[in-house]
Design brief:
alpha/beta, seven-stranded mixed β-sheet, six-stranded mixed β-sheet, 16 helices, 13 strands, about 15% strand, globular
Length: about 400
């Protein structure tokens, strides 16, 4: 696995597009690791301090993810180094998408990612420049669709991704309506835990979980886990957190989900970040969901969680361990030798799988069909891992080995 990983990590990306904004300090990159299958896919993220190496590593992560989610295409990523809270954000995004439009027309498909919303930002802006859908480049480059096929596939994409959820199994009750894009990644992260206990053994009901990050992924995963009888005992977000060692009720978790503001945790008596960060890693729990930014989890936190009963990590964030390596550094390896890690390209493949499902010839567009397709995809990937490694450690390394053998 290590030799395969080294070879894959060291391979130069096929295309690197660099951009400097003419009207602000924003800079951005599209990194296309390869045009495997004639196209590449990966979302657009924005954060202050982002650099080209981060975008390169995420493009490689996407390529690995497509071995699980399909279609069999190359990995890509867009990244913009700019403060997403800056009032100029919308104008920066408009200039960015104008610049990358030729790629999006021909062979690159994108979507939302960190601080960029698929429904409210990516789709309206790209549509205004004449793109039928942000995945149009994949429809053209990979599927070589005829005009009628293209109309059908893009129609399915437009309807499916923005679909307002109606099935109560997949959306919390509340005044706000949620879309497939809002809930699907968190759903997949929770389903990965459910399938893990089914395949490797053990009951999920009654387990305790800690959630890192209360954006779409972490909060949705918490809701779906709570439905399965998991007790959420701790939440750590970027400005603070909550701890309740006996576990929040399902209604309490749903209310915390519904009360978010700008993807931030909002609640009475939120504990300041420094205090919650000092305490949360020592609370007894079996499940950990890293669903914040990349490269946050350090070795000390892993050691403390292991001592607190940790059994499984389901990676909602891409590359959650604080290592410089693109995929797997010392912290990730240490954790993989101690507990079960469901890697990001399996656990958080939900949105990529939705795109693949909606581009298929006979996509069913009900809530149930879309969500069950993601669940089956994750279960299939975990069963393949279990076939070569029935042990409860080194799951991530085994999963990487399966994926990399398809790419190298």
């Amino acid at each position: 696995m290590k030799e395969l990983l080294k070879k894959f990590e060291n391979k130069q990306p096929e295309i690197v597009f660099e951009w400097s904004d003419s009207e602000s300090e924003a800079e951005g990159w599209v990194v296309i690791n390869s045009l495997r299958g004639g196209a590449a896919g990966g979302g657009t993220r924005m954060r202050k301090g982002l650099d080209k190496r981060e975008v390169e590593s995420l493009a490689k992560t996407m390529e690995v993810k497509f071995t699980v989610s399909g279609p069999p295409i190359g990995g890509a990523k867009s990244g913009i180094n700019f403060d997403p809270n800056d009032p100029r954000k919308d104008a920066v995004l408009k200039r960015w998408y104008r610049a990358v439009m030729p790629l999006l027309k021909n062979y690159y498909g994108t979507g939302g990612d960190l601080n960029i919303d698929e429904i409210y930002e990516v789709i309206p802006i790209t549509e205004s420049y004449g793109l039928w859908h942000p995945q149009e480049g994949i429809v053209n480059g990979h599927f070589h669709a005829t005009e009628p096929q293209k109309i059908r596939k893009i129609g399915q994409l437009r309807q499916g991704v923005s679909k307002v959820l109606e099935d109560p199994l997949y959306t919390p009750n509340g005044p706000k309506k949620y879309t497939v894009a809002d809930m699907i990644t968190g759903f997949g992260v929770a389903e990965a835990v459910k399938h893990y206990y089914k395949i490797w053994g053990g009951k999920i009901r009654g387990k305790k979980a800690i959630i890192q990050g209360w954006g779409n992924v972490g909060s949705a995963a918490a809701c779906f886990l709570a439905v399965e009888g998991v007790k959420v005992v701790g939440i750590i977000d970027r400005e603070g957190g909550l701890i309740k060692e006996e576990g929040f009720t399902l209604d309490e978790v749903r209310n915390l989900f519904l009360n978010r503001e700008s993807n931030l945790l909002v609640a009475d008596q939120v504990i300041p970040f420094e205090e919650v960060d000092a305490r949360i890693w020592d609370i007894q729990h079996e499940i950990f969901i890293p669903a914040a930014a990349s490269r946050l989890i350090n070795k000390d936190q892993v050691e403390r969680m292991c001592q607190s009963g940790l059994e499984v990590i389901s990676c909602g964030a891409n590359v959650p361990f604080n290592d410089p390596e693109i995929f797997f550094g010392p912290t990730g390896v240490y954790a993989d030798e101690k507990v079960s890690i469901i890697p990001d390209f399996v656990a958080n493949c939900g949105m990529a799988r939705v795109f693949a499902h909606l581009m298929s010839n006979k996509a069913e567009l009900t809530d149930d069909a879309i969500f069950k397709d993601v669940s089956r995809t994750i279960a299939k990937a975990l069963k393949k891992t279990h076939e070569i490694n029935p042990q409860k450690t080194r799951l991530a390394q085994s999963s990487f080995e399966i994926a990399l053998k398809q790419l190298i």
